[in-house]
Amino acid sequence: MPIACYRTFAFFLFLAANVSVLAQADLPDRSPRASIARDIGYTAIGISYSSPSVGGREIWGSLVPYGKVWRAGANRATTLTLSTAALVNGEPIAAGAYALFLIPRSADSTWTLILNRDTSLWGAYGYDAGQDVLRTELEAKFARTSNEEHLKYDIVPQNIENGYLLLSWEKLRLYVPIKVETMERAVAEIQEAIAAAPTESEWEVYAQAAEFLLWAGTPGPALQYAKKVMQAKPSPKARWRLSRAYAAVGDFSQAIDAAQSLKKGEEGKAFYEAHKVEVDNALRNWQSK
Fold first, then answer.
1. H or E segment at 94?
2. d(CA 77, CA 135)
3. What is the domain partition of the chain in residue ranges?
4. Which residues contact 163 (CB under 8 A, 6 or more apart)?
5. Any idea of the CA torsion for 118, 120, 122, 125, to the nearest 10 degrees?
6. Which fold has domain 183-287?
7. Which residues form the signal peptide (predicted)?
8. What percent of the chain has pLDDT over 90?
9. For 146-158, what is each residue's pLDDT tens digit?
């Protein structure tokens, strides 16, 4: 074949290859990308994944084999990020980004959760157990009736230091407990704010600290700060805070007296009328103790 013919043939091969590439349509992924981020205390927790659907397929033991490392999603490896150190199912994990894998087993067995340093993987291809930072066992729960068509993750805070990661797909519900350190830093922040505040403004930090500690379930210190507010800047709002703090430590007699006193005086009456439902409900509850 003449050289010119070879060149023509090569040109058409090149053209056909490029036309094939250019002709590929940009279509939505059948397992679309998804992510969720939530804070628990000071810790930002995020998870990025791709979400496959059931699509009438048999999932467990078939599409997702038992006993093999699974990407816990689709496409690229699922990634968990922690902005601070945390306990994952009771095991210490440093702040960072980790690939999350699972080893599924039959419905009546525990499943293995894996956190791995290599977040660059496509699925579990190239997975290296030597890069694991965590292997821990979890109880896989299966719903009797509800069915989650699309795989999804949720991050559920329970309080300022505890929450869980929830994986739902088909009938699977897999809970991963997460615990973070919050109170130690919060107490330090309160102490620093008090030290930095002008004397005439300290009561504002006391009030903020009392409200936070009541919400956080630490009533003893909350009561002490609530008392300091009443000493420095007495008001109906401060008295109502003190009342709630007494109730939180179980001193219902003092809580009732403080709340009842809101009905006295013009300023107190105005506060009481504005918060009547909340105050009366609390009084009924405390009086029943």
1. none
2. 16
3. 33-179, 183-287
4. 38, 40, 45, 155, 156, 157, 177, 178
5. -40
6. 1.25.40
7. 1-25
8. 82
9. 899 999 999 999 9
22, with CB counted inside 10 A (0-12, 13-18, 19+), is exposed
Residue in 73, 24, 27 with CA at minimum distance from that of residue 48 = 73
Q: What is the pLDDT of residues 206-216, one digit of tens each?
A: 999 999 999 99
Q: Which two tokens stand for residue 214?
A: 């009541």
Q: Answer yes or no: are the C-beta atoms of 172 and 60 closer than 8 Å.
A: yes
| Segments of the chain assigned E as strands | 33-40, 43-50, 78-82, 86-88, 91-93, 96-103, 110-116, 132-142, 148-157, 162-170, 172-179
Q: How far apart are CA 271 and CA 289, in angstroms?
A: 25
CA angle 228/231/232 to nearest 5° reads 85
93, two tokens: 């994990």
Q: Give the separation between CA 252 and CA 243, rounded to whole angstroms.
A: 9
Q: Which of 235, 250, 241 is nearest to 213 (CA)?
A: 241
Per DSSP, 77 falls in state P
Residue 206 in tokens: 């006391």
Look at the block and give the residue holding tokens 């002709």.
Answer: 23
Over residues 17-71, the pLDDT tens digits come to 554 455 688 888 888 999 999 999 999 999 999 999 999 999 999 999 999 999 9
Q: What is the pTM of this model?
A: 0.83
- 219 membership: H or E segment, kind and range: helix 219-232
Minimal CA–CA distance to 247: which of 205, 214, 216? 214
Q: Strands 91-93 and 86-88, how do they pair?
A: antiparallel
Q: Are strands 172-179 and 86-88 parallel, antiparallel or unpaired?
A: antiparallel
Per DSSP bridges, beta strands 148-157 and 91-93 are: unpaired
Identify residue 175 by its one-letter amino acid code. Answer: Y
